[in-house]
Amino acid sequence: MEKPLPQLARIIKDERDSGMGYTNADVAIDLIVNARGRACMMHDRPFVGTPVWVKYLTNKRKVKLVFDNGTEFVYDHIMTGPMHKALLNVTKLFIIQINNGVPVEGYDTTLIKE
């Protein structure tokens, strides 16, 4: 049985599926880990799907987002030494969409090491 999505997420997902004209590869992404070990991923437009969890591929040093519609997207950026070490200790990742410097949508996800 499929878990129901919150109404706001469902509306945004329907708009994305109805021809927004881009893929997850077109979304600009920044990943930040602060000194306390809290991680945040910021992006500039909605993803095509709702992020359910995030995997850190430790051998490739890349981050993979897993969405509710079954798709996966690998953030094509190799994590450097300090970022790699920080991500090894992170368990939660907050994903925030930013529009003109203002947060519009956010997801609190689990970061799984693989």
Describe the fold and architecture.
By secondary structure, this protein is α/β, with parallel strands linked by helices. The chain has one domain. The chain contains two helices and seven strands. Strands 1-2-6-7-3-4-5 form a seven-stranded mixed β-sheet, with helices on one face.
Defining key terms:
alpha/beta, 17% helix, 114 residues
- Overall geometry: globular
Mean pLDDT: 83
Structural class label? alpha/beta
Lateral strand order in the biggest sheet? 1-2-6-7-3-4-5
Note the main sheet: 7 strands, mixed
> How are helices and strands ordered from N to C?
HEEEEEHEE
How many strand segments?
Answer: 7
Helix content: 10-25%
Number of DSSP helical runs: 2
Rg, rounded, reads 14 Å
Q: Kindly report how far apart the N and C termini lie.
A: 27 Å
Question: Uncertain segments of ≥5 residues (pLDDT<50)?
Answer: 5-18
How large a portion of the residues is in β-strands, by DSSP E? 35-45%
Multimeric state: single chain
Count of the separate structural domains: 1
